[in-house]
C-alpha cells in the first residue's frame, strides 16, 4: 500500500499518543514559520527531535499531518468553548467579555498554524467555514448561558460582533491591525461595555 493511500495510525498506548502530540506540535511550529508548501516532513521530524521513520509511521504524508492538525484544533476549540460556556453561567457580562477575549489570545499560537494551512489550500473553503461556524456557535452558547433571556437571533448578532472584536485583539497582538500601546485595553473596555449593555437586560 502506498504512503498516499495508507491511513494515519492512531496510537493505542500513552507513549504513542505523546509522540503524536509532539510531532503535531512540531508540525504546527514549522508550518507557522515557513508555510505549508515550504514545510517538509524532514523539517517536522527534526523539530520534534524524532526520526523521520517515526513521523512516517504515524503520518504517511504531509497532507495527513495537515488533516490531523485540523482535527486536533477542532477538538481543542470545542473543549475551550465548552469551558467558556460553563464559566459564563456564573460570570457577569463584563467578566464574560474578558473571558472571551482571553480565550482567543490563549488559542492564538495554535490558530496561527491552522491559518497558515487554510491560506495555503484553496480546496479547504468548507473547513474554513466550519471553523467560523464553530467559533460563532461557541460564543453564542456562552452568551445565552450568561443571559438566559436573550433571543436567539440577537445572540447570533452579538456573537458575530464579539468574535470580530476577539480577532481584532489578536491582530493588535500580531501588529497586523493598527494599534498603540493602550489600544488593547481600550478594546477590552469597549467589549465589557458592549456586553454589559446587551446582556444585562436579558439576565434573570
TrEMBL record:
Indicate the segments forming the HTH tetR-type domain, all copies.
17-77
InterPro entries under this entry?
A: Homeodomain-like_sf (IPR009057), HTH-type_TetR-like_transc_reg (IPR050109), HTH_TetR (IPR001647)
PROSITE patterns per the record?
Answer: HTH_TETR_2
User: What UniProt keywords are attached to this protein's entry?
Assistant: DNA-binding, Transcription, Transcription regulation
Protein name according to UniProt:
Helix-turn-helix domain-containing protein
The DNA-binding region ranges are: 40-59
Amino acid at each position: 500500500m502506498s504512503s498516499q493511500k495508507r491511513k494515519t495510525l492512531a496510537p493505542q498506548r500513552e507513549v504513542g499518543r505523546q509522540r503524536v502530540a509532539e510531532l503535531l506540535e512540531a508540525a504546527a511550529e514549522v508550518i507557522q514559520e515557513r508555510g505549508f508548501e515550504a514545510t517538509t516532513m524532514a523539517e517536522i521530524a527534526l523539530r520534534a527531535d524524532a526520526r523521520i521513520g517515526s513521523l512516517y509511521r504515524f503520518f504517511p504524508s504531509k497532507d495527513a499531518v495537515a488533516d490531523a492538525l485540523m482535527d486536533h484544533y477542532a477538538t481543542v476549540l470545542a473543549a475551550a468553548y465548552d469551558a467558556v460556556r460553563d464559566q459564563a453561567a456564573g460570570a457577569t457580562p463584563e467578566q464574560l467579555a474578558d473571558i472571551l477575549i482571553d480565550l482567543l489570545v490563549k488559542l492564538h499560537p495554535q490558530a496561527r498554524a491552522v491559518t497558515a494551512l487554510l491560506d495555503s489550500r484553496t480546496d479547504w473553503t468548507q473547513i474554513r467555514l466550519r471553523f467560523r461556524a464553530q467559533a460563532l456557535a461557541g460564543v453564542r452558547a456562552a452568551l445565552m448561558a450568561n443571559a438566559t433571556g436573550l433571543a436567539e437571533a440577537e445572540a447570533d448578532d452579538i456573537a458575530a460582533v464579539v468574535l470580530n472584536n476577539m480577532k481584532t485583539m489578536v491582530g493588535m497582538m500580531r501588529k497586523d491591525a493598527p494599534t498603540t500601546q493602550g489600544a488593547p485595553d481600550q478594546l477590552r473596555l469597549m467589549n465589557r461595555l458592549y456586553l454589559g449593555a446587551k446582556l444585562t437586560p436579558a439576565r434573570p
